[in-house]
Amino acid sequence: MRQPVPGAAAGGVGxxxxxxxxxxxxxxxxxxxxxxxxxxWDESLKASAVDVPFLRYGFLxxxxxxxxxxxxxxxxxxxxxxRDGGRSLQAAPLFCTTARPDSLLLLGTSxxxxxxxxxxxxxxxxxxxxxxxAALEREAPGRTLDLWNILETSPTAAALARAAAGxxxxxxRQRLKPCPRILLDGGWEAYLARLDKKQRHELRRKxxxxxxxxxxxxxxxxxxxxxxxxxxxxxxxxxxxxxxAGFLTPRMHAMFHALTEVAAREGWLRLEFLRIDGRxxxxxxxxxxxDRLMIYNSGLDPAFLALSPGWALLGHLIRSAAEGGKREVDxxxxxxxxxFRLGGEAxxxxxxxxxxx
Length: 357
Known about the structure:
There is one protein chain. The chain has two domains: 24-178 and 349-356, Gcn5-related N-acetyltransferase (GNAT) (Aminopeptidase); 181-330, Aminopeptidase (3-Layer(aba) Sandwich), CATH 3.40.630.30. 37% of the residues lie in helices and 27% in strands. The protein has helices at residues 31-36, 38-45, 57-65, 67-70, 125-139, 156-167, 187-194, 197-211, 227-238, 242-247, 250-266, 309-323, 337-341; strands at residues 24-28, 76-83, 90-97, 100-106, 144-151, 169-178, 181-183, 216-221, 269-276, 279-289, 292-300, 328-330, 348-356. The strands form two sheets. A seven-stranded mixed β-sheet has the order 1-2-3-4-5-13-6. The radius of gyration is 22 Å and the shape is globular.
């Protein structure tokens, strides 16, 4: 899929018009070279404009190992890495695939990683964006840069628009899915007070009914040898939803196991179940990342629907986050009604498309 460009300089140096390179861009095309920068990658992410688990090396490496659980048939890494005078790493985690041979996409595109972005400090995003386009023009002429799931609050869109205007590229942005979130200012009781009166009453009633049910308990799966079994139990809950059952192919199963192993090892996995008499009635796969709780996926057993186990578990998670000092609960992508009934406020992710004019 990679086509060498006659006369292109080794390493793919991004050049600002009329001057020396602002950032030297090297494209990594194999996993070994990528692994060599893994530690610097995650360290630099901490200072990046958008620091989310979906951009961590381990998450993206797990995604790559299965091509997104089979979302893509194949792929070749096109990871643009920049360093400037020994300062922190900057990265554009890109790949290409025979399914989209004329495009470069972000690793994680588009169903698995809810938020994607470039990895760079906010103060340096303009120089990195301009250098990246210059490097792509040399190393991957004619390719479209197609970036999905960029948060509308990220500075990346504006930086790429400026870089595109300066380099003669077209730039377009498209709003995609809402990503509702709850801000937890003031704790659990303050959160409840902000809910609609009817919804507040319903949430409390459902939580109390479950908590009064004999044999009901909330159980958090821990790391270690029992994790794989807990993940399988969670995936079985997901298959009760017909749409999710079709999504859960063998390769998707493998990817879920790889992702949860990484998250558990790095300390940000929260896999929580509501069990009744030892049976999983509902489950939620979440990421506790910094001051946020991200609810990534969920499932429930319809045999327990009369108890509203999904609502009770979500209420438990929100209460736990508030009492644990989290700043927000992020429901991630999707405009499902329950997210807004629980007080979610929408923001959106976007698709950015850049082409050399």
